[in-house]
Design a protein that fits this description.
The chain is of the alpha/beta class. The protein contains 12 helices and 10 strands. The strands form 2 sheets. A 5-stranded mixed β-sheet has the order 3-2-1-4-5, sandwiched between helices. Strands 8-7-6-9-10 form a 5-stranded mixed β-sheet, with helices on both faces. Helix 2 packs parallel to helix 3 and helix 8 packs parallel to helix 9. Bound molecules: adenosine-5'-triphosphate, magnesium ion and fe (iii) ion.
């Protein structure tokens, strides 16, 4: 069973083919980072234009690499949302065209379900499980009692983790996207600066990173006014310690309360070295809880994860027709029903 996945929700144009839901046959990602860098973030208009230019090239490359023909495929899976509407539309229209031209079923996929299912390309999922999703637009703890079922038990009330990373990086004059740069700096420094940790109300699995972000910005400005210099390594390490402390602590607490068999890490910030190490240590202290962390290439946006999630939805009989539209605000829980 071969599923072709298409992903264009943000700034990567990606096409991949997956065999039996778990095996990557081809996985092509065209990143637009170079085009957005000088603006310090993703410019939606530019993203859409690049997707249009790249889509057929990336599709052809993924098909060539796979050595398959469209007759070998069982379905086309595509990210229908959430994301930038103009960017999503390019992928959705491409998927609809392929579905129509080759008489293939069309399977809509929620982008965050995709991030979670990147883990199934590493190892079989065991339920019930808990997924910590940390990306550019989301920070969520998601409980899954079975395939295709998503219950959001906690989410950010303001900035996403990735967003906080990118904003702090900007304050330190690091290039976009800043996450990997902060991660690298953090490994070279000590967490000597006292920064807040937003635990929120007792028992809450929600997150908040805007206070931490403001604290970092204030620390930098205050130092500038006093004519002092702060070591960027120390600031990066302190910021990262604060983010990772809260993410890991809440994940462990939820894993215990919900008695899960497995914890999955997902989303672009899952590439963070500090988070990977600390989560692995913490899960190691729990009895009979297994941890999956995808390789870096499957953490950031790609279409292999969309095809992996698409395989599950395909088996569940979820289909879209040619009236499928991009939905920038697609809801994960509603999508799972
Ligand atoms: P969403 O998935 O919520 O729609 P997105 O698709 O834009 O958002 P991803 O591509 O999943 O987000 O992740 C991109 C984010 O991951 C960026 O904010 C980037 O800075 C962050 N990131 C990537 N690598 C690292 C790292 N090593 N450490 C911290 N953050 C990182
Ligand atoms: Mg991206
Ligand atoms: Fe993403």
């Amino acid at each position: 069973l071969y599923i072709l996945g298409i992903e264009t929700s943000c700034d990567e144009t990606a096409v991949a083919i997956i065999k039996n839901g778990t095996e990557i046959i081809s996985n092509v990602v065209a990143s637009q980072i170079e085009s957005h860098k000088r603006f310090g973030g993703v410019v939606p208009e530019i993203a859409s234009r690049h997707h249009v230019e790249q889509m057929t090239i990336v599709l052809e490359e993924a098909m060539n690499e796979s050595k398959l023909t469209f007759q070998d495929l069982s379905a086309i899976a595509v990210t229908a949302g959430p994301g930038l509407v103009g960017a999503l539309l390019i992928g959705v229209e491409a998927a609809k065209s392929l579905s129509f031209a080759h008489s293939l079923p069309l399977v809509p996929v929620h982008h965050i379900a995709g991030h979670i299912y990147a883990n199934r390309l590493v190892k079989e999922m065991q339920f019930p499980l808990l997924a910590l999703v940390v990306s550019g637009g989301h920070t969520e703890l998601i409980y899954m009692k079975e395939h295709g079922h998503f219950e959001v038990i906690g989410e950010t009330r303001d900035d996403a983790a990735g967003e906080a990373y990118d904003k702090v990086a900007r304050t330190l004059n690091l290039p976009y996207p800043g996450g990997p740069h902060i991660d690298r700096l953090a490994q070279e420094g000590e967490a000597t600066i006292d920064l807040p940790r937003a635990w929120l109300e007792e028992g809450s699995y929600d997150f908040s990173f805007s206070g931490l972000k403001s604290a970092v910005i204030n620390t930098v400005h205050n130092a500038e006014q006093r004519g002092e210099t702060i070591k960027p390594e120390a600031l990066a390490a302190s910021f990262q310690a604060s983010v990772v402390d809260v993410l890991v602590e809440k994940t462990i607490r939820a894993a215990k309360q919900y008695n899960v068999k497995q914890v999955l890490l997902a989303g672009g910030v899952a590439a963070n070295q500090g988070l990977r190490v600390r989560l692995e240590q913490a899960i190691g202290t729990l009895d009979n809880v297994d941890l999956i962390i995808p390789p870096l290439k499957l953490c950031t946006d790609n279409a292999a994860m969309i095809a992996a999630a698409g395989s599950i939805f395909y088996e569940k009989g979820i289909r879209a027709d040619l009236s499928l539209n991009a939905n920038p605000g697609l809801d994960l829980e509603a999508f799972s029903r």
